[in-house]
């Protein structure tokens, strides 16, 4: 896709998602809601997932080593993947493009597409629960909250989050397929 066509596609997508972004962002008007999503987003910066990676071998012994290593591999590949896409697609964040959408927390980088937080949350959750399904009760809600937080806080469009989830799912499936369980 040419740079001009990509830019036009991004403009159309931004316009189509503006109203939903604005509505979800305004839902963050109460301090309690805003603080919950800020906390969840901050944990999604890596703190929560690094803690999970460290705890897997502690809780599961040797059985926890492989999934922790798989999550580490997914982390490195994920950062490279979303960094490359963001640098090439240069989609501005909703709070930059649209008046009325407020950034309720600072972004980690400049561009919006895809959501790296969602990519990592989905890939880590799928890898961890492939080995230890009993962790789904904790990891799935956390992943959903992280994904929602990115839109609610004004940092991403819904399509950024959906793309991040799809990439995270594909990454998890690939890492699981290429490394032993």
What does this protein look like?
With 181 residues, the chain is mostly helical. It has one domain (41-178). The chain is built from seven helices and no strands. Helix 2 runs antiparallel to helix 6 (136-152) and helix 5 (116-131) packs antiparallel against helix 6. It is globular and about 50 Å long. The relative contact order is 0.18.
Rg estimate, integer Å = 17 Å
**What fraction of the residues are assigned to beta strands by DSSP?**
under 5%
Q: Would you count the extended β strands for me?
A: 0
Overall geometry: globular
Portion of residues within helices: over 70%
**Alpha-carbon distance between the two ends:** 38 Å
Summarize the structure.
With 181 residues, the protein is mostly helical.
List keywords for this structure.
7 helices, 181 residues, globular, mainly alpha
Topology:
Blueprint: H1 3-26, H2 31-60, H3 65-89, H4 94-97, H5 116-131, H6 136-152, H7 158-178
